[in-house]
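INFO batch 0412 | record 1 of 1 | parsing
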Amino acid sequence: MKEIVAIIRPNKLDEVKDALEKIGCHGITVTEVKGRGRQLGITESYRGSDYRIDLLPKTRLEIVVSDEDLEAVIKAIVETAQTGDIGDGKIFISSIEDVVRIRTGERGEEAV
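INFO prediction complete | emitting C-alpha cells
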C-alpha cells in the first residue's frame, strides 16, 4: 500500500475529487494549508504599497491506495490539478506498513 500526499491549488479541489471518484478512489482526507515552493510567494500591491505574501493557501490531500491503484490515482491528480503555471503543487508517495479499520478491526488492504 502507498500513501499519496498531494499539495494542490485550492480551486482545483473539486475537479480532483471528481476525477478520483470516477476511477473508484473514494477515501480522501483534505486539509487547508499554507506553504511555498520555488515560487517563494508573491508580491501584491495595495493602495500604492507593495507587500509580499510568502505563504500561499494550498490544499493537502492524503490518500491511501493499493500498489495496483497508485499510477491511476497519480494520473488523475496530475491531469486535473495541472495548470502549467508555477505553484501547481507536488505529489509525495510513501509506503504504508499496515492499516487498521477501528470499527471492525480489519487490517491491510481490506481496511482501506
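INFO post-check: The beta strands are 2-8, 29-35, 42-46, 49-53, 56-65, 89-95.
INFO record closed
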